[in-house]
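Final report, Chapter 2: Outcomes

The project's central promise was a pipeline that accepts a single protein chain and returns its three-dimensional structure in a standardized token representation, suitable for archiving and comparison. That pipeline is now operational. To close this chapter, we reproduce one record exactly as it appears in the project archive, with the input sequence first and the structure output second.
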Amino acid sequence: MADVLTGDFYRFEELLSEQERETLLRVREFLREEVVPIANEYWARAEFPLELVKGYADLGIAGLAYDETPGPRPSSLLSGFLAMEMARADPSMATFYGVHTGLAMGSIAACGSAEQRERWLPPMSRMELIGAFALTEPHGGSDVAAGLETTARREGDTWVLDGAKRWIGNATFADLVVVWARDVEDDQVKGFVVEQGTPGFTATKIENKIALRSVQNADIVLDGCRVPERDRLPKAESFRDTAAILGRTRSGVAWQAVGVMLAAYEIALEYAKEREQFGRPIGQFQLVQDLLVKMVGNVTSSLGMVVRLAQLQDAGTYRDEHSALAKAYCTTRMREVAGWARELLAGNGIVLDYDIGRFVADAEALYSYEGTREINTLIVGRAITGLSAFV
């Protein structure tokens, strides 16, 4: 990975300030030196490289967006480029980081009390405490807003949680898990911070995944899990609050999709210049150039979309449908680019040696999580027509 991205055809990176670009280049160097060399190894073993957590912490970028953490607040543009860069190196590690800093820390920052924010966000920004976000359930994905089955029952100063969660990233080793449950008294969805090791809380690693294999997704069982009132997020009063967090983090997934596209395109481009058939590099063939141009077109259009999305966020004029469109569009284009890159590498595209196989598989997970294409389409469709097609 070079300091100048060959896939950034319109040089969007130049929109960053000099200081922001220094931060990005520092992260890029860490990813190049520490993450990329071991990504395939850990992906193949379906293990998480815990030894890298300190390196991520030393970058000093975790949780910069929150007032309780030290350092200057980053622009949405820088935050997006960082998410893109992480996914360009390894979508599994980008997902780990996004769950921790976006979903878990974001839930506490948006819905926690001042005391909770001061108690948890600083150590989470130092990555001394790792967070997870438990919303999806075995029987509830896209319909979780209306079908959330996990319950919360108050007994004095304690809440009793019962139910199950599925696909919860980081949950096997996270110190804090934000659990969303329906209050049996008022039927509203509320948020609770559950510490790892709490009696009645069990997290079991999901095996046999074909995507994001380094991410430690878990099945969680909550069986009479008792959480003190002081660990309930007081500003999480309905699913509307949960959805607001997802709306903010959804844009990060769009940026991750651009990162996967960049990686796939760059791998394909280098391969096309080096691989020879019929006595010349395959990049000299018209059909191969056509594939590469379609790839860089997808990267450029998607990068332009998320850059504008970040500008809207920084200007305070962003709406949920903006991130919904970006997530739906960019992940669809990501699938195309990854597939074309795999096609260009032919048989070499299905082995980890050339990296692209990992990105093809991981793209499938990014395409689905944080709202499927169909659900995000309905969010945008409601915004442009004023009519809801949700059932």
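Archive annotation: Residues 239-274 form the longest helix (36 residues).
This record, like all others produced under the grant, will remain available to the consortium after the project formally closes.
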